[in-house]
Design goal:
One of its GO terms (biological process) is electron transport coupled proton transport. This protein has 648 residues and is mainly alpha-helical. It is 67% helix and 1% strand.
Length: 648
């Protein structure tokens, strides 16, 4: 292979990306070396099995991916701002819009929410860690290396260009030769291993490691939404795994599963993809519903209205999510009967979603609302998401969908659901639980500037796209006709407004780190209702000195009324905790090497990497590391220091 075939050449923007990667990498290496932080990085982060640190690494990675996906979006909006623009050529535009969709769904939204689940769910149920801490570390590193493998494609080999759905036969070897599509297949496959493992791990944690006497219907709503999301992950992700494996075998080993020749079935990929893809939408929206529910209850200072109805509506949505996938291809000739069945199931899913809207409004009714930044994101979500939901019902009508389907109306709907639902929730959840992660709040004044720029930019960007779509502008085009100029230009201005909002948000993280007052109590908002706010600040690595007992709904409120805490010296005993280990990052690093080799069809190197991974699994199977115990004296010292108590 020639060097110019290995590296992407000929694009000034990509050369700029290469320079940026080199400069950022050099700066990180210099800082770590200059401040002698290599040992600290390895000991405290790269080898950690602490669910809180793993969650923080998920969120930091997701924020980086939000920047990458956002830059892709801005490049597309610049290209579509004026008729006849030549900012991106057709090939480069296809690559950018493919990576934008894939990065935002797979490598931003999911890891952001999984990061919040990692940090908060064990704290909410009174657990000391995940059921399988080693597997949790494996999950993160498989996601991380999968994300890196996918993202490196724009400077090495070339990015995939068949859209984030990668429909066959366009994504097949005949029509998409080269390594680009292989990066998509192997990157998603590698990351998907971690997601599936997380689903199993978190489900077992919630079922088996809740505090004594915490019944299922005493669990906080965020834990419930995470638990039900795990069911969707466990049933949906194997479908994607099989589909990706079959297409990989098609492309690299010449089989005929999805090809136009040899009795392959291109439409089968579309079915398999959306049998995963529509439940995937609810994987990233149900935890968001849980986040908003927690925040609204806290800052409305009321118990969540209709708790049981909320839980059962989430269960119903999860079940229906597997019965609606055909609405993604109403226009592909399935027939009137099939379209009618899936049109009805699509509209049915609006019912439990509507129940939730009324639950939130009922919670807000006659309450004393505190307009914190987290609450602003939650309040903005409700009307914004309703717009996405109503237009979803319009798209769910099969006859009408023939008009809407391939237009910018669908693009607007999709973003109203996923940005107003998921991205707003990511910002809201991060602001809300930030003191629990880092021991200080984000600055509220700067946070409100970020919120308003992002919110206004969001509506200015996507609301005009409904009308552009109704005016006939199809999606997936890299040029616009003169009659679509005005609304497209307005849309581009809105996109840059969102970019400014995100930049202010990042600045807020820096500013708050420098100047925010440090938390001295675990209940940062003074209105905490659930167990995560009962822990000390900062949260000890073992979470709870003594496991909470007799836990009901709104557990912390009950403890406050009784004058109790989670620190009871009379019940202290040594706490068993797992040891840190470097095996997860090494194992997933070797598997990432094998995946990279397979991208370029270097089968021998890929086989060597696979053998190395199996050897690491063997080493792990003979690992008899039983962890360590935290002594009672150490627990006393830690808790007293965290709670500002004097040593006796």
């Amino acid at each position: 292979m020639q060097l110019d075939e290995f590296f992407v050449t000929g694009e000034p923007l990509i050369y700029g990306g290469m320079v940026a990667i080199a400069l950022v990498t050099s700066a990180i290496l210099f800082i770590l070396t200059y401040f002698k932080k290599w040992n600290w990085l390895w000991r405290e982060w790269l080898t950690t099995v602490d669910h809180k640190k793993i969650g923080i690494m998920y969120i930091l990675s997701a924020l980086a991916m939000l920047f990458r996906g956002g830059m892709d979006a801005l490049m597309m909006r610049v290209q579509l701002a004026f008729p006849g623009m030549n900012f991106l050529n057709a090939q480069h535009y296809d690559e950018v819009f493919t990576t934008h969709g894939t990065v935002m769904i797979i490598f931003m939204a999911m890891p952001f929410l999984i990061g919040l689940m990692n940090i908060i769910v064990p704290l909410q149920i009174g657990a000391r860690d995940f059921a399988f801490p080693f597997v949790n570390a494996i999950s993160f590193w498989s996601f991380f290396f999968g994300a890196m493998l996918f993202n490196i494609s724009f400077v090495i080999g070339g990015s995939p260009d068949a859209g984030w759905t990668s429909y066959t036969p366009l994504a097949g070897a005949a029509m998409s030769p080269g390594p680009g599509q292989n990066f998509y297949l192997l990157g998603l496959q590698l990351a998907g291993i971690g997601t599936l493992a997380t689903g199993i791990n978190l489900m077992v944690t919630i079922l088996k490691m809740r505090a004594p006497s915490m019944k299922m219907f005493h669990m906080p709503i965020f834990t419930w939404s995470s638990f039900i999301t795990c069911f969707i992950i466990i049933f949906a992700f194997p479908i994607l795994t099989v589909a990706l494996a079959l297409m990989t075998i098609d492309r690299i080993f010449g089989s005929q599963f999805f090809t136009l020749t040899g009795e392959g079935l291109p439409m089968m990929w579309t079915n398999l993809f959306w049998m995963w893809g529509h439940p995937e939408v609810y994987i990233v929206i149900l935890p968001a519903f849980g986040i908003f529910s927690e925040i609204i209850a806290t800052f409305a200072k009321k118990r969540l209205f209709g708790y049981s109805a909320m839980v059962w509506s989430i269960v119903l949505i999860a079940g229906l999510s597997f019965l609606v996938w055909v609405h993604h291809f109403f226009t592909m000739g399935a027939g009137a009967f099939v379209n009618s069945v899936f049109s009805i199931s699509t509209m049915l899913i609006a019912v439990p979603t509507g129940v939730k809207i009324f639950n939130w409004l009922g919670t807000l009714y006659k309450s004393k609302i505190e307009f914190s930044v987290a609450m602003l994101w939650s309040l903005a979500f409700i009307p914004s998401f309703v717009i996405g939901g109503v237009t979803g019902v319009m798209l769910g009508m099969a006859a009408a969908d023939f008009q809407f389907h391939n237009s910018y109306f669908l693009v607007a709907h999709f973003h109203y659901v996923l940005i107003a639902g998921t991205v707003f929730a990511c910002f809201a959840g991060l602001v809300y639980w930030y003191p629990k992660m880092f021991g200080h709040k984000l600055n509220e004044r700067i946070g409100k500037w970020s919120f308003w720029f992002f919110l206004i930019g969001f509506h200015v960007c996507f609301f005009p796209q409904f009308f552009i779509g109704l005016d006939g502008m199809p999606r997936r085009i890299f040029y616009i006709a003169p009659e679509w100029f005005t609304l497209n230009f307005i849309s581009t201005i809105g996109a840059f407004g969102m970019g400014v909002g995100f930049a202010i948000f990042v600045y807020n993280i820096y500013y708050s780190f420098r100047y925010s007052e440090r938390e001295t109590t675990g209940d940062a908002w003074n209105n905490g209702r659930t167990l995560e706010w009962a822990t000390a600040a900062p949260v000890p690595h073992y979470n709870f000195a003594t496991l909470p007992d007799k836990v009901g709904y709104d557990a912390l409120l009950d403890m406050k009324e009784k004058g109790e805490t989670t620190f009871d010296e009379s019940k202290l005993e040594p706490i068993h905790m797992p040891n840190n280990t470097g095996k997860p990052i090494i194992m997933m690093g070797i598997l990432a090497f094998a995946s990279f080799a397979l991208v370029f069809e270097w089968v021998t190197l890929a086989a060597i990497g696979l053998i190395g991974t199996i050897i690491m699994m063997g080493i792990r199977s003979f690992d008899y590391d039983d962890g360590h115990y935290v002594s009672v004296d150490e627990i006393k010292r830690t808790e007293r220091a965290a709670r500002g108590l004097n040593d006796e």
